[in-house]
C-alpha cells in the first residue's frame, strides 16, 4: 500500500508543481501574512493546496487531509495526507530555486509515503516505507559519517523575533564546532539534502508536520535517523543525519543546548 500512496503523492505533487511553476513565471505577490510580518502566504500556496486536496481526495474520497494553509478534512480510512503546498515560500517569492511541493501519506498516524518535488529544478524525491528513497527514480543514500568538525549542517530560522534571537544564540555555540552551516530555506529540501548526502545533517526548531513529514521519510529511507522534540521556545524541533554518527550529532546538540535543556 505504501508504494501506491507514494505513486499517488508523486502524481499530485507533479500536478501542483506545474501550477506553482506557472504562477512563478507570471510573478508572485504576498497574499497575506501568518505568524509574523515575514511569514508570508501567496495565492499560489492556496491554489497548490486546493489542487492537491482535490487530486488525492478525487481518487481516495474517504481519506483525511491536513494542509499548511488550513484546508483540513476528516476521513474514515486511516489514511491522512499531510501537505505543504509550497515549502520555501520566501524562496518562491524571490525566485531563489529552492521551493518544493511536499506530499506525505500517513496510515494510522505513521508516515508511509512521501514526495518532495523541487519546483525550480524539477528534482523529485520519493520514498515508501521499507522500499527505499529515490531522486528522479534513482536510489539515494546519505553520506558516510564524518568527524563533527567536518560536518556541514543545514538549519533554518523561525519567523518570530524571539525565536530568531534564540536561534542566533544557539548558532554561536554550534558554528565553531562544525565545518559550516547552510540555510537553504526549505525544511523539506533540507531533509532531502541529508538523504542524498549533500549535507551531513539538519536541525531546526519551529518546523511543522507538513514541513517535515515527507522529507523525514525520504531521509530515513536513504539511511538517516531523526529525532523530534520540543525546543527552547516550545516549538517543534527536528535533528536529522546519517544513522551512522547520529548519536554524536545528538550529543553535540544536547551539550551546547542548541534547543535548550
Ligand atoms: C518554512 C521553510 C523554512 C523553515 C521554516 C518553515 P514555509 O516553510 O521550511 O526553511 O525554516 O521553519 O516554516 O513557510 O516556506 O512553508
Notable characteristics:
binds D-MYO-inositol-1-phosphate, globular, 5-stranded mixed beta sheet, 36% helix, 7 helices, 7-stranded mixed beta sheet, 261 residues, 14 strands, alpha+beta
Structural features, described:
- With 261 residues, this protein is an alpha+beta fold.
- Helix 1 (2-26) runs antiparallel to helix 2 (43-59) and helix 5 (187-196) runs parallel beside helix 6.
- The protein is globular and about 50 Å long.
- The longest helix is centred in the N-terminal third of the chain and has 25 residues, at 2-26.
- The protein has helices spanning 2-26, 43-59, 89-94, 161-174, 187-196, 209-221, 246-255, and strands spanning 30-33, 40-42, 64-67, 79-87, 100-107, 110-118, 124-128, 133-135, 138-139, 152-155, 180-182, 201-205, 224-230, 236-242.
- The relative contact order is 0.14.
- It contains seven helices and 14 strands.
- A hairpin with a 4-residue loop joins strand 7 (124-128) and strand 8 (133-135).
- A seven-stranded mixed beta sheet has the order 3-4-5-6-7-8-9, with helices on both faces.
- The chain binds D-MYO-inositol-1-phosphate (IPD).
- D-MYO-inositol-1-phosphate binds at residues 68, 84, 87-89, 156-158, 185-187, 204, 206-207, 211.
Amino acid at each position: 500500500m505504501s508504494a501506491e500512496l507514494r505513486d499517488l503523492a508523486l502524481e499530485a505533487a507533479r500536478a501542483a508543481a506545474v501550477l506553482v511553476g506557472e504562477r512563478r513565471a507570471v510573478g508572485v505577490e504576498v497574499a497575506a501574512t501568518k505568524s509574523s510580518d515575514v511569514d508570508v502566504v501567496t495565492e499560489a500556496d492556496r491554489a497548490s493546496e486546493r489542487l492537491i486536496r482535490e487530486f488525492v481526495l478525487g481518487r481516495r474520497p474517504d481519506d483525511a487531509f491536513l494542509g499548511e494553509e488550513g484546508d483540513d478534512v476528516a476521513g474514515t480510512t486511516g489514511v491522512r495526507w499531510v501537505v505543504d503546498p509550497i515549502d520555501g515560500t520566501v524562496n518562491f517569492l524571490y525566485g531563489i530555486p529552492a521551493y518544493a511541493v511536499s506530499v506525505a501519506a500517513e496510515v494510522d498516524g505513521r508516515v508511509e509515503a512521501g514526495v518532495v518535488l523541487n519546483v525550480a529544478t524539477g528534482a523529485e524525491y520519493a520514498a515508501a516505507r521499507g522500499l527505499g528513497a529515490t531522486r528522479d527514480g534513482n536510489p539515494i543514500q546519505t553520506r558516510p559519517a564524518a568527524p563533527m568538525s567536518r560536518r556541514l549542517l543545514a538549519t533554518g530560522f523561525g519567523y518570530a523575533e524571539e525565536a530568531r534571537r534564540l536561534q542566533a544564540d544557539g548558532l554561536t555555540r554550534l558554528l565553531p564546532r562544525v565545518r559550516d552551516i547552510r540555510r537553504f530555506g526549505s525544511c523539506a529540501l533540507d531533509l532531502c539534502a541529508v538523504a542524498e548526502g549533500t549535507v551531513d545533517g539538519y536541525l531546526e526548531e519551529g518546523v511543522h508536520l507538513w514541513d517535515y513529514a515527507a522529507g523525514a521519510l525520504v531521509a530515513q529511507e536513504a539511511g538517516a535517523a531523526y529525532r523530534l522534540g520540543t525546543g527552547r521556545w516550545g516549538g517543534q524541533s527536528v535533528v536529522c543525519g546519517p544513522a551512522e554518527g547520529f548519536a554524536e550529532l545528538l550529543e553535540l546538540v544536547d551539550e551546547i543546548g542548541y534547543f535548550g535543556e
